[in-house]
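Suppose you are handed a protein chain with no further information: no name, no annotation, nothing but its sequence. What can you learn? This example shows the usual starting point.
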Amino acid sequence: MSLRIATRGSGLALKQTQRVAELISQISPEIELETLVVSTAGDRDQKTSIQELGGQGVFVTDVQSAVLAGKADIAVHSAKDLPAETTPGLVLASVPERADPRDALVGCIWDDLPKDALIATGSIRRRSHLSHLRPDLRFQDLRGNIETRLLRVKDVNAIVVAKAALDRLGLTPETMNALPISILLPQVGQGALAIECRDKDFEIIQMLKEIEDQKVRTLVDAERSFLAELGSGCTLPIAAHAIAEKEEILLKASVASKDGTTLLKAEDTGLDPNLLGRNVAHKLLNEEGGDRLLNENL
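A reasonable first move is to predict its three-dimensional structure. Written in structure tokens, the prediction is:
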């Protein structure tokens, strides 16, 4: 049996695909693995902001299309790039593992950032959270692969990237500050890997379940359930992070105005990840004023 794996062509994406291939080979060494590199809209245009390109989905749609068209059998993604609603014809078959979900400030320590510091980031979530804490901060857009982004450190006071990306690529910047979630709540699914396949490929689905980390899957499901409840049309900065707390799941989430002047937070615990995600979304919308914030930004 052969298995074709679709992925983006960035160094990080290839490293993540290699890791998934290793996991598959451990349980099914007889499978021949082949990598199909797909150019995505987000890769082809590295100057336009992610929001202008279409937001979440710009790094996965073309990879998913390769699987739907039969050019590949599975797709490997960063879970944070996946929209909340699964594409028809596909299934999120496996979430095998998760690296550090935090964001990393590179070039300066958070407490040492000078007044009016210039921060480079392409994420409206990162901008809104940091500017909420430090309204004096200035921001500059940041695109490209991790290696390219790190080169920008010399032009600004600091950049913000995913800690998981640095760890997976073995990159150790001279000055790096992993930001606690009390400062910067992670993006939904950040640090986790996600594997999709066609929803009728039952044999492949079963095989991918064998490499899944059920604990990680449960936490990511809670975060994605929260995102889905807020709706795919929401363009405001959204964040959510779940952890296992004894027998329950603790889910912290937020929604903010794009300029960071308003940052609403909610949290709750529960056993069912999908129900918990919906409950936290309702709490944020109905009790914390999130519904009003969303309506103001329609």
